Amino acid sequence: xxxxxxxxxxxxxxxxxxxxxxxxxxxxxxxxxxxxxxxxxxxxxxxxxxxxxxxxxxxxxxxxxxxxxxxxxxxxxxxxxxxxxxxxxxxxxxxxxxxxxxxxxxxxxxxxxxxxxxxxxxxxxxxxxxxxxxxxxxxxxxxxxxxxxxxx
Length: 152
Hints:
- Helix 3 (about 85-95) packs antiparallel against helix 4 (about 100-135).
- The chain has helices at about 15-30, 55, 85-95, 100-135, and strands at about 5-10, 30-35, 40-50, 60-70, 75-80.
- The protein is α+β, with helices and mostly antiparallel strands.
- It is built from four helices and five strands, in the order βαββαββαα.
- The radius of gyration is 22 Å and the shape is elongated.
């Protein structure tokens, strides 16, 4: 399952700074995050609880996001999602014990929402960065009352 999201960004958008901020946000949420820089792309790998008993229970989450900027568009392609633990948990739960079946379903829901959550967070970070690069938007007249600077 590969999903791709696109965002319009400023011409001077800093992809490496964006990747660093996104990686730090997910590190703070308990993910192991690795960032690989290439000349015109950044590959970010997100993993959480992917080993040991969590694999058997299907509770691990993992995905790879490839980020690129071309002609003012940030594209994030999600790939290599961690579905192995969920499949194992569903099989073990179906044939042996019901508990891994339930935890694997919970893991499936979390894994399926991971690209959407990362995409939403990426959009927030990208929009904040665009505001920093472009400055505040056009300012209209402020609250000045019915007759600003005049006499009553």
